[in-house]
Write a structure and sequence with these properties.
Radius of gyration: 31 Å
Largest sheet: 9 strands, mixed
Distance between the termini: 46 Å
Low-confidence stretches: 1-64, 744-748
Shape: globular
Helix content: 40-55%
Number of helices: 35
Structural class: alpha+beta
Number of strands: 26
């Protein structure tokens, strides 16, 4: 997620009642009569609306066509500009003798190099062309908003863009621009109707929300743009001021205290800083001119931030309007790299480059803002920052897989921690996963070492959970803008701190809270000083801060370990374990329909082979990526697939590669299994080397899972999503002989020799502990599955089970758990053929039910509704069929956060993929449409029977 900041957001109404949510944009001190709200579209207005009122709406808004509607026209015109600019800066066979094209292309290439220097080395010609097109259609917007100040003529980046366009002079621009005159006029009308500074900021927020995000949808989607509520912004600013006062004896208003917002978005942290009173009136001009700084990498956001900050300052200052000279269009992360510091590329963007150089030389004491939240992926251009991550967070982490330490918000924490040196304050709102993530133990360890005080307000809202846990998480303060948990962190470096070590204070916002209540609580607290019930955290040896793992867990017998997996130890139950199968292309490779699965695979392979034909003998990664973009109609390309393309791996369609895969709990699908086409097979080829391999595997949640612990056995290759980034512990593994390994070089697939995956050491341990030489490895496999279902075991170790590879106890009665595990395993593996629970079928059609009446429609299955909410004893299958009599026990058994019936409802629905348009229709799975009813009844039976077996289990722990 890339977070941009909204100039206005949630604040309480003046009466003290809760205010509107994100995006409503009404602040307590805004005069509602001066704020022009977006009216409904003309089609939505009542027919009887008097003409005079309609005319007044049009007069106030400037046009009967509103901003969100204009976005479509702007997107089309921007695409036309891109085509024209591309033609003017690209030398090819048709224009290589044209001196104007050659000169424009040469200047443009220099312009691209400057953007790479100022922003990021990964900037491409296509990126630069898109920026120019964005400038062409948005520059007049800002001039319309602030026409007396002539923003585009004053801002150095805007000037550089315009200078480049003046050289290129793409044809047809004037004709296209005329099409937007009415839109620009509507912006002017809106601006004239805003009599207050806050109202003008509201226009900026609405313009971004209604216009820019729609007009440039791909950019917005790629960056995951959402808004941060002002309640969170104000809380961070007030908290930063308080710790400056109390712990460093300073103030943000003081001379020499340089403040930086390194990911400024639309500039709200700085505008709210000016509006909050934290900067004294006597100091505002000095701070604006010398001591407040901002960076932004997205051109549109940079423009908005600049005008936003300037307009707020202008409202506060009695002097003439002047530009904000300390905002840089740049990649903050790259600014810290040595290569960026020694760069001498300064031509079109000279003033922007000078601003960057000036900022690098400053002693920054305060860093506030909202970093980008994109998932970890190493991008070119940050070698020194990555080295810092490796030498600190990664080095201290107790996890094995550490890719997520390169999430951009974690890069931001690392960068900011280094940037403030040995004295200063950081105030961020971030993804909150780092608070208890397993891989993030290194972050927690370093924060405790590097800072004198750490304050964390956990706002929760993790939508990647389910069931009761999801309810306790409450709403996300970003509403639907993010599914991740949210946290506010205030970090203090004070070398003269009176207390010893790092003082870590933690406050959980609480259970079941709405977005409104969470934001209201931040307003009531005002800052960290308003919180009087902090929990002081004392990290344990695992660097856990909260939900610390239970110490007794280490006394249990491990199911697996990295050492055992590599053959360096044998003190585990299983030798091999592996993640589930990961395609990263589910819509293209999975389908309920065998024919659709085959057809989609053929189309994808055609794309891949066509891209392969474009490549020479030794293609580069860039050449492979370019070829992939030319053939993506039926393929989702990711880095792994592009790498396989660059390696020139071959693929050919074969119907033998269509397997049945355990996709989700008790839901199978057809999948085209070709390891070249998927993201990662992990070691599933050693567990299920062929489609008909006879094997069973116990699937457990991956380390760090946010779902409650559960276990599921399957006899088909499991997808990674079957149990929350699942780790699979198989009964057998299959290893190839040297001859088979040689054959595999020539793409001859053989299963390999079946080898017992339960270690001899485990067999000896169990036989010795229970003094029973009749215990077999099959018994141990069953025992493991049985004891993993024991309620007292799960209740005793909830934190350790979520943060470590699973261990098991030696229960008092081995045979009881082995029998339970055997019965549960047969039930869960054989769910497609188990008995059916007697549910009553109600048919609402005319006459007798026919096969067509049992088919799923476009509307998903759902529970009956009553006055109290959902009646989970009754399931509406479609418009004709309803099943009643579902017992309560069917809703008690949970696996991967849901009941089996909920998984069936979630997955057995007609699903069109938004990007590809491919449809996955579960009706194709059933030979007879009535089999759907049998499936539902069986799912209910296995749920009830599972609960019966689990309830009968004795204690597993002495």
């Amino acid at each position: 997620m890339r977070v941009l900041i909204s100039p206005v957001g949630w604040t309480p109404k003046s009466s003290g009642s809760p205010g509107p949510g994100i995006g409503d944009g009404r602040a307590a001190d805004i005069d509602p009569d001066t704020v022009v709200h977006t009216p409904p579209s003309q089609e939505d207005l009542p027919e009887q609306l008097p003409g005079a009122i309609m005319a007044r709406i049009v007069e106030k808004c400037g046009s009967r066509k509103y901003w969100d509607e204009w976005a479509g026209d702007v997107a089309r015109i921007a695409r036309a500009h891109i085509e024209r600019i591309t033609a003017m800066v690209t030398v090819d066979e048709t224009n290589r003798d044209n001196p104007d094209i050659q000169a424009a292309a040469e200047m443009f290439d220099g312009f691209v190099k400057e953007l790479q220097d100022d922003l990021n080395s990964g900037i491409t010609r296509e990126n630069a062309i898109e920026m120019l097109a964005q400038h062409m259609v948005t520059g007049p917007v800002f001039d319309a908003l602030f026409e007396t100040e002539a923003f585009t003529k004053r801002n150095p980046v805007s000037q550089a863009m315009q200078n480049m366009l003046d050289v290129i002079k793409p044809s047809g621009i004037d004709a296209e621009a005329e099409n937007l005159e009415e839109f620009y006029a509507s912006v002017k009308h809106r601006a004239k109707g805003a009599s207050s500074d806050e109202a003008k900021q509201q226009i900026i927020a609405e313009l971004y929300d209604k216009f820019f995000r729609n007009a440039f949808a791909e950019t917005s989607k790629k960056l995951g743009i959402v808004y941060t509520p002002v309640a969170a912004v104000d809380f961070i600013l007030q908290s930063t001021e308080q710790v400056l006062n109390n712990e460093l004896g300073a103030s943000m208003s003081d001379q020499g205290v340089n403040i930086l917002d390194p990911f400024t978005g639309t500039g709200t942290f700085i505008t709210r800083l000016f509006q909050s009173g934290l900067i004294k009136d006597a100091d505002i001009e000095r701070k604006f001119d010398h001591e407040i700084h901002a960076n932004e990498i997205v051109l549109l956001a940079y423009y908005i931030a600049a005008v936003n900050i300037e307009s707020v300052f202008h409202a506060k200052s009695v002097r003439e309007y002047r530009p904000f000279k300390h905002i840089c269009l740049t990649d903050t992360f790259q600014m810290g790299e040595e290569a960026a510091q020694t760069s001498l590329v300064k031509d079109s963007l000279k003033e922007n480059s000078d601003r960057r150089s000036g900022q690098r030389d400053l002693d920054i004491r305060v860093i506030v803002g909202n970093p980008p939240w994109m998932a970890g992926k190493k991008e070119p251009g940050y070698p020194e920052l990555y080295k810092q991550i490796e030498e600190t967070y990664a080095k201290e982490s107790t996890a094995t897989l550490k890719n997520s330490l390169y999430d951009t918000y974690k890069l931001a924490i690392r960068w900011a921690s280094d940037r403030i040196g040995d004295r200063g304050v950081i105030g961020f709102v971030t993804n909150g996963s780092w608070i208890q993530g397993n891989v993030d133990s290194g972050i927690r360890a370093c924060l405790a070492k590097e800072f004198s005080s750490v304050y964390v307000v956990d706002l929760r809202g993790n939508a990647r959970t389910s069931g009761e846990l999801r309810k306790t998480e409450g709403d996300n303060i970003f509403d639907l803008g993010s599914r991740a948990p949210v946290a506010i962190m205030i970090l203090v470096k004070n070398p003269l701190a009176s207390h010893e070590g790092c003082r870590i204070l933690y406050r959980d916002i609480g259970d079941y809270l709405s977005q409104e209540n969470k934001l209201k609580q931040l307003v009531e607290w005002q800052s960290i000083t308003g919180i009087d019930d902090w929990q002081e955290v004392r990290p344990d040896s695992n660097f856990d801060w909260i939900n610390k793992r239970e110490s007794r867990f280490n006394e249990l017998f491990p199911l697996g370990s990295k050492k055992a997996k590599s053959g360096k130890a044998y003190d585990t139950v299983f030798r091999l374990f592996s993640n589930g199968f990961k395609t990263s292309r589910d819509a293209y490779l999975y389908n309920f329909s065998l024919d659709s699965c085959a057809e989609n695979a053929r189309l994808m392979i055609d794309d891949y082979k066509s891209a392969l034909e474009k490549l020479g003998d030794n293609p580069t990664a860039n050449e492979a990526e370019l070829a992939s973009k030319q053939h993506e109609k039926n393929t989702h390309w990711d880095r792994e697939l592009i790498n396989n393309l660059a390696r020139k791996k071959k693929v050919n369609f074969s119907s033998d590669r269509i397997w049945k895969i355990q996709y989700r709990p008790f839901v199978k699908q057809h999948c085209y299994v070709d390891y070249t086409l998927v993201n990662n097979k992990y070691q599933q080829n050693l567990i299920f080397p062929e489609t008909d391999t006879e094997n069973r595997t116990i699937c457990l949640p991956g380390v760090g899972s946010s779902q409650p612990f559960s276990a599921l056995m399957t006899d088909h290759m499991p997808d990674l999503g079957i149990n929350s980034a699942t780790q699979c512990f198989p009964r057998y593994r299959f290893e190839k002989s040297d001859e088979q390994k040689q054959d595999s070089l020539f793409e001859i697939e053989r299963g390999g020799e079946r080898i017992d995956n339960i270690t001899d050491n485990a067999l000896d341990k169990f036989q010795s502990h229970y003094q029973d030489r009749n215990i077999t490895k099959d018994d141990i496999f069953d025992y493991v599955y049985g004891v993993l279902h024991a309620p007292d075991f799960r209740e005793a170790f909830p934190n350790a089970l979520s943060k470590e590879l699973t261990r098991i106890p030696f229960a008092p009665d081995f045979r009881v758990f082995a029998k339970a595990g055997h019965d549960l395993g047969d039930l869960h593996v054989g769910y497609e053929h188990c008995p059916e629970y007697s549910l009553e079928l109600e048919f609402s059609g005319n006459g007798n039910a026919e096969p067509r009446h049992f088919k799923l429609g476009t509307k998903a299955m759902r529970y009956e509704k009553n006055e109290e909410g959902s009646d989970k004893s009754s399931l509406i299958v479609n418009e004709y069929i309803r099943l009643t009599g579902i017992p309560d026990e069917a809703h008690e058994y949970m696996v991967n956060g849901r009941t089996p019936l909920d998984w069936l409802i979630d997955r057995y629905k007609i699903t069109p993929d938004k990007k590809s348009g491919k449809v996955n229709d579960p009706n194709a799975w059933f030979e007879n449409p009535e089999d759907l009813i049998s499936t539902i009844r069986r799912i209910v039976y296995l749920s009830v029977e599972t609960i019966r077996i689990v309830r009968s289990l004795p204690n597993s722990i002495h």
